[in-house]
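Give me the 3D structure for Methyltransferase type 12 domain-containing protein.
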Amino acid sequence: MAPLARVRARSLLPALALIVGCAGDREVRQRMTPPEVSGSLPGTEDTSPGPGEADGALNGGETETELVSVRPGVNDKYFEAGAAEEWSELLEHDGRDVFEHREAIVAAMALEPGMTVADIGAGTGAFLTTLSAPLGPEGKLYAVDIAPPFLEHLRGRVADEGLSNVEVVEGTTTETGLPPGSVDVLFVCDVYHHIEYPSAYLRSLHETLRPGGRLVIVEFDKVPGKTSKRMMKHVRQDKATLLAEVGAEGFSLVEEITSVPLSENYMLVFTR
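Predicted structure for Methyltransferase type 12 domain-containing protein (272 residues):
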């Protein structure tokens, strides 16, 4: 090696040592971080904030994605004792738009025997019987909820009504609680405005759905002059916001179903 080349080589050694040392530190951190926390290899994760998320600082100037609720406490009332009985009267009566048209809503979904369907935010079970019937004994309906009073109520209904193809599943505010690629149709009815962490939960929905599967969302409209003042205040997002949030997490809009005569709601079908 020429003298000049040796000098340049020696000058690079400290920098190379620093790079190798940093890589070693990352390996140590990776080995010490539980898989459920790390999620992906250090330096490869997407740390850009999405809807409902913000950046949080870590030691050493690194960043991680921090979940931020878009509606803090929106579901607290469902965790109270006696909530299921109280809300059964409010959610299951013919004056409620989606309950009155539940048969037409399910018919428009074109469910077939043997399908696997998930009722996300099943609540008091207003759609249990209507959704489970077309699936047949070889099909499966997952009734998913996060509130213990509702979960207990749902299990009671399943037993009392002999719904052998229905399984009650406890989810969380960020995950469905279902295996990846396990569902043909996800049904989210009057629930979207109760999702505290839209980006995280939509990613879980996307993961739960089989390739080519459908996400059916029935949601309250939010149109000034048309929507009641109570619902304008209660519902977080309008249709345009919902479409943007769902589309951002990998879903494609297939159609808006207008054959069901809903007066307060709209019905959208997406695919992954």
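The CA atoms of residues 73 and 196 lie 9 Å apart. Let me know if you want a second pass.
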